[in-house]
């Protein structure tokens, strides 16, 4: 009898620990970190419970069950109290589906382009079913709705107020905003006002959202945020927006430097846009016909024990580390090479 009681008490303690760590009855960890350095936990897809819905544009969306229930509460709150009509653009994408996308891109465009464009299968937060991409509908004067669906439309300044109201209520329902402005070097992704993440704990969500610039990576202790300074200098060739867009590409790549801490990033000046450097960039990405080039330099610290990437000198400050990008005048920046040239 005593043995049974001891076993029952031990089981209760294990269950309590699991619940406090964010585990659902199905066995998934609602605080699991999945990004460019951390893969989907083993057996996640087998334990995941999902529902499938059809959104306002006719797309089927699959989402983790508790996350969907919380989304419905958020949606109802915003509709009743703020006149904001949310919809789900996307949520879960399986590892197999991601691999199919990768395979198609490799076949059509080559492995290098695919690696730059498609998230590595197993390393996308959308595999979890807990990452939700939102869009919203606007009610017209005649009572009908217009879908504001495309990223370039949702980020127009006229909708900033809508996102502010949405973000202000996320934590009440256990969600956080996942990809923040100016934190690309920590998350690996640019700012996405539509990408939210369910963590199944409103108090923890409020703790995260109450701290400006707090990312899930830093909250969980996966990375440190020593503070980053960015110097765009002055340029007669490029606008501030041009340079900011280039810097985002650099910071997103830096997020894959496991254990490294980025301290500063600065534009190297207009002198980098030479015919020689253009030839060098076009040689790296043959056939693209780039017409503009920029260089950024950075200072960062390597990990004390760089086990995953032994190419780094341990516990070392790297200075004036180079990043080179190029574009056509009417296109986006492509990060082509980095390091000491």
Care to give the gist of this entry?
This protein is of the alpha+beta class and 341 residues long.
Protein architecture, described:
The chain has 341 residues and is of the alpha+beta class. The chain contains twelve helices and twelve strands. A hairpin with a 5-residue loop joins strand 1 and strand 2. The longest helix has 19 residues, at 2-20.
CATH topology descriptor of the largest domain: Muramoyl-pentapeptide Carboxypeptidase, domain 2
- What is the molecular shape? globular
- The share of residues in helices is 25-40%
Number of strands: 12
Note the beta-strand portion: 15-25%
The pLDDT mean sits at: 90
Unreliable stretches (pLDDT < 50, length at least 5) are 1-25
The Rg value, from CA coordinates, equals 23 Å
What number of structural domains do the residues give? Answer: 2
Euclidean distance between termini CA atoms:
73 Å
What is the overall number of helices? Answer: 12
Order of helices and strands: HHEEHEHHEEHHEHEHHEHEHEEE
Largest sheet: 5 strands, antiparallel
Please state the structural category: alpha+beta
CATH class term of the largest domain = Alpha Beta
Q: In the CATH hierarchy, what is the architecture of the largest domain at level 2?
A: 2-Layer Sandwich
List the helices and strands and how they pair.
Blueprint: H1 2-20, H2 44-47, E1 50-54, E2 60-64, H3 65-82, E3 85-90, H4 95-109, H5 111-117, E4 131-139, E5 145-148, H6 151-154, H7 160-170, E6 175-177, H8 184-187, E7 195-198, H9 202-209, H10 216-219, E8 229-231, H11 240-254, E9 261-267, H12 275-284, E10 292-301, E11 317-327, E12 334-339
Parallel strand pairs: 8-9
Antiparallel strand pairs: 1-2, 3-4, 4-5, 4-7, 6-7, 9-10, 10-11, 11-12
């Amino acid at each position: 009898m005593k043995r049974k009681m001891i076993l029952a008490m031990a089981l209760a303690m294990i269950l309590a620990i699991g619940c406090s760590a964010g585990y659902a009855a199905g066995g998934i960890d609602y605080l699991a970190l999945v990004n460019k350095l951390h893969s989907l936990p083993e057996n996640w897809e087998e334990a995941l419970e999902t529902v499938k819905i059809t959104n306002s544009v006719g797309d089927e969306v699959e989402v983790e069950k508790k996350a969907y229930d919380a989304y419905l509460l958020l949606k109802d709150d915003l509709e009743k109290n703020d006149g904001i009509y949310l919809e789900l653009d996307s949520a879960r994408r399986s590892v197999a589906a991601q691999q199919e996308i990768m395979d198609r891109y490799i076949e059509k465009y080559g492995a290098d382009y695919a690696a730059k464009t498609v998230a590595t299968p197993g390393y996308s937060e959308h595999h979890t079913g807990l990452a939700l991409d939102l869009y919203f509908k606007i009610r017209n004067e005649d009572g009908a709705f217009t879908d504001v669906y495309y990223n370039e439309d949702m980020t127009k300044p006229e909708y900033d107020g809508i996102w502010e109201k949405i973000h202000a209520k996320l934590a009440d329902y256990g969600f956080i905003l996942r990809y923040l402005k100016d934190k690309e070097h920590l998350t690996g992704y640019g700012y996405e006002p539509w990408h939210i993440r369910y963590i199944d704990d409103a108090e923890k969500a409020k703790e995260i959202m109450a701290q400006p610039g707090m990312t899930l990576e830093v909250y969980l202790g996966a990375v440190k945020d020593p503070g980053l300074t960015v110097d765009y200098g002055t340029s007669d060739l490029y606008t501030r927006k041009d340079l900011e867009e280039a810097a985002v590409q650099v910071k997103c790549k830096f997020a894959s430097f496991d254990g490294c801490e980025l301290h500063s990033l600065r534009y190297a000046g207009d002198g980098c846009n030479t015919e020689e450097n253009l030839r060098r960039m076009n040689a790296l990405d043959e056939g693209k016909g780039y017409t503009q080039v920029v260089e950024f330099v950075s200072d960062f610290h390597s990990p004390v024990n760089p086990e995953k990437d032994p190419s780094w000198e341990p516990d070392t400050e790297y200075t004036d580390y180079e990043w080179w990008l190029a574009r056509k005048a009417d296109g986006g920046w492509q990060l082509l090479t980095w390091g000491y040239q």
